[in-house]
Each structure stands twice: as structure tokens, then as C-alpha cells.
Amino acid sequence: MDAVRQLLGIIEEIAKGNYSNDIMALTKEDQPETTRAIAEAIGLMMVKIEAREYQLEMMVEELKALNLKIKENTIKTVSAMAHALAARDAYTEGHAARVGDLAGRMAALMGLNEEEAESIRLGGILHDIGKIGFPDELFQAHEGQNPNNLVKEIMKHPGAGAEILKDLDFLGLSVELVHCHHERLDGKGYPRKLNAEEIPLGARILAVADSYDAMTTDRPYQKGRSPEAALGILRQHAGTRWDEACIEALEAVLGDVQNQ
Ligand SMILES: [Fe+2]
User: Fold this and answer.
1) Contact 92, 86 (CB under 8 A)
2) Which segments of the chain does DSSP mark as H helices, in order?
3) With CB atoms 3.0 to 4.6 Å apart as the test, which of 3, 123, 133, 150 could cross-link to 174 if both were Cys?
4) How far is the CA of 27 from the centre of ligand 1 (A)?
């Protein structure tokens, strides 16, 4: 009876994941034959379970490494696409990466989780990818002073971008953010004239980061504004054009950068 109780105790420990050598004592010659046979079978089972657990742990490690590689490749793919656009549109060199960086930081500061913040960062890097099919004259066009037919063409780029990216499953949410980055809270944006609550938060973040970077960067036709002046313009249009909470997040991110 003692041996049965001992065997039972050992089985319970194995079930909890505690593998000890206690079972060995019950396989010795001084034990009744039945006890020895059961103890040997349990011992063998324990060794096999341990080996499988080890194998699983190894597989999990391999999967983690593969996952990291996929993530790295995703970022490289996205960067390659952004570089392809930069090659055509020289004066926005660095703009995509800066918008991605700013938007990702704003998202994290607003309490979005790591995955969402990363989608927003990738959306920032790719936001203008739809311009890649533009004719050269559109790249030479000047913001705010374009003939109507050019403006119409320019307004197609968010939709064109979403169309280019739509089959890249790894981009997830980023594709919709690219589609919505020129929408405005008051419904006067483009291409779909969405209203505030219809615009994903990530796209409202992108709109603020994109506009801030465009305003503070020197262009052939305009000198970049100071950060204070750009923030002033954003604040002036808070609630109509841009989301106030996103502007506050931008201010906090810029404050953090200055304090570094
Ligand atoms: Fe854009």
C-alpha cells in the first residue's frame, strides 16, 4: 500500500511538472515485481515527457528568432518602398522616416500598445507611397499653388497608396492609415471626406505628424517654419482640421526630444 501511495505521489508531482529521481528507489530489486514494473514505466514516461518539453522549448526559441527576422524584413521592405519614392521625390528626402518616427512616438505616448504604435510608424513611413506613380510634373508642383487638374491628381495619392499596399498582409492596419492620412475632423479632407469618428486614431496621428514635418522643413518654394510657428498653426485648427489630443501628444514628444 505504501508503494502505491508513493507511486501516486510521484505521478502527481510529474503532472505538476516536477521531475525528480524519487521513482528510481521504487525500481530496485527489493521492491515487489508489480511496483518495479510500474515504477520503470513511469520513469520511462517521465524521461520522454522531459525530452519533448526540451524539444518544445527549442522550437519556441527558433520561432522567436524567425519572428524577429520576419519583423526585420518587414521593416527593410517598407524602407525600400519609401526609398523608391524618395528617389523620385528628392525634396521630401527624410520626410517619410521623420513622420514615421514622430507618429510612432506620439502613439506610444497616447497609450497605444506596441503593435499599434508600430503599425502607425510603418504607416508614417509609407504614407505618401501612392505618389510613386505620379508624372514628373506633379513632383515639381508647389503645394497650395497648383492648377485644379494637378490638385485632382494629387488628391488620388492616399487611395493609390492603399491600393499598392493592400495585399501586403504584414502591414495590417497601416494600409488603412495610408488611405486616411489626408482626412480632416470636419469632413473636408480627402479622398473620402470622412468625419472625425470615422477616421482611425492612427490616421489622425499621422495627419498631425505629416503636417508638422511638412511645415518645419525647407522646400525649394518655402522656408521651413519654426517648431513654435508650426505648432501654433496646428493649434489654430485643432478640432476642425486636426485632432487636439494628437497635437498635445506631438507637443509632448517634441518636449521630450528637447529635454534629451
Ligand atoms: Fe500625403
Assistant:
1) yes
2) 2-15, 33-88, 95-109, 114-126, 136-140, 148-154, 157-165, 174-180, 201-216, 227-236, 244-259
3) 123
4) 75
What pLDDT score does 235 carry?
A: 97
Domains of the chain: 2-48 (no CATH), 89-259 (1.10.3210.10)
**Distance, CA 90 to ligand 1 centroid (Å)?**
15
Intervals of the chain under pLDDT 70: 1, 91, 141-146, 257-260
Q: Tell me, what's the pLDDT at 1?
A: 58
Distance 182 CA to ligand 1 centre (A): 6
User: Bridge-partner residues for 238, per DSSP?
Assistant: 242
How remote is the CA of residue 141 from the centroid of ligand 1, in Å? 14
Separation of CA 188 from chain center: 28
Cα of 127 from ligand 1 centre, angstroms: 6
Q: What separation in Å is there between the alpha carbon of 130 and the centre of ligand 1?
A: 8
Grid cell for residue 197: 469618428
**For position 222, what pLDDT does the model report?**
79
Cα of 184 from ligand 1 centre, angstroms: 13
